[in-house]
Amino acid sequence: MHEKDYLIWLKSIKGVGNKTLENLLKYFKSAEYVYKASADELLKLKGINHNIVHNIINNRDSKKILEQINNTRKYNIDILDREDKEYPENLKHIYDPPFILFKKGNILSRDMNAIAIVGARKASAYGKYVAYKFASDLAKKGITVVSGMAYGIDTMAHKGALENGGRTIAILGCGLDICYPKSNHNLMKEIEKNGAILSEYGVGTKPLPINFPARNRIISGISKGVIVIEANINSGSLITAEFALDQGREVFAVPGNINSSLSMGTNKLIQDGAKLVTDIDDVLEELNMKVDEDNNKELIQLSDTESEVYKAILANQPIHIELLFKELRWNISNISSIITILQLKGLVEQLPGNLLIAK
């Protein structure tokens, strides 16, 4: 088994949360060594009690671990650790980043400029309209929308991005083999095709209430800022806002009707210093995000590999195709295929003499 397999095993053990996992890895240097350590060795670590040691020892079953790995593959779920290229860069730098992320879909470099939209499950028609409008406007500017795929505001945020040609990322509080809520089954498929679905919970993990506060730190951590649209005073969206502040992210709130309980949370955020926003230009200005909509083709349409080839051509144009091969040092047939794709997308032109230019 590989180190990543041992990490998945360790993460699945009852009582081993993110901080316990971090302490174990610091002490034993790898999850494999934790798997092989004796009970006496495990008990030497401060903060590890007999119950956790008991659970670790009793769950050392290579057949069950392989079964868990095979189940993950069965659902076409990828597994990211912090060293993987696709692990979201913004998330690496929060206080408590997940050691393991389960993923369906793709994370692109452009997702670093993601903005989260969260809010009430039982949203009003006005709240749903605002969530859809904000997400659609962000999508049109090539900015990824992050949310939690719950009813109400979350659902409308994902739909607003998808239905306007954008990317969106959903963070779940359960295993990726489970669609929660069930009614978002088709939406989940669309998000996978046009973004990513992430969770720190393995296959089979049910959407228990205890999972969602931890899930919220990922929503804020992966984003540059968080927009809250409608929230009760004890809403989970306010937990996301608190995480955002702790992580150094900007918090934005849409003002609401003072007679509505759904506005109590957002209006309180504004009182406490969150920036009042009425459109996404307010958000982009505060985050100093400059978006050139006339030159946004690369941002919207390119995969990571396509983006790298496009940038290499753009930086050195006109560039001979042989020099491009040397510059990138990739498989020549792969580069040639990507050049063809870029030509079909109208972003690259081949001139006489095998010279390439970016349009």
Automatic annotation (TrEMBL):
Domain of life of the organism encoding this protein: Bacteria
InterPro entries: DprA, DprA_WH, DrpA_SLOG, RuvA_2-like, WH-like_DNA-bd_sf, WH_DNA-bd_sf
Pfam families reported in the protein's UniProt record: DNA_processg_A (PF02481), HHH_5 (PF14520), WHD_DprA (PF17782)
One GO term (biological process): DNA-mediated transformation
Taxonomy of the source species: Bacteria, Bacillati, Bacillota, Clostridia, Eubacteriales
Species, as recorded: Crassaminicella thermophila
Segments forming domain DprA winged helix: 301-354
Family of this protein: Belongs to the DprA/Smf family.
Name this protein carries in UniProt: DNA-protecting protein DprA
Domain Smf/DprA SLOG: from-to ranges: 80-287
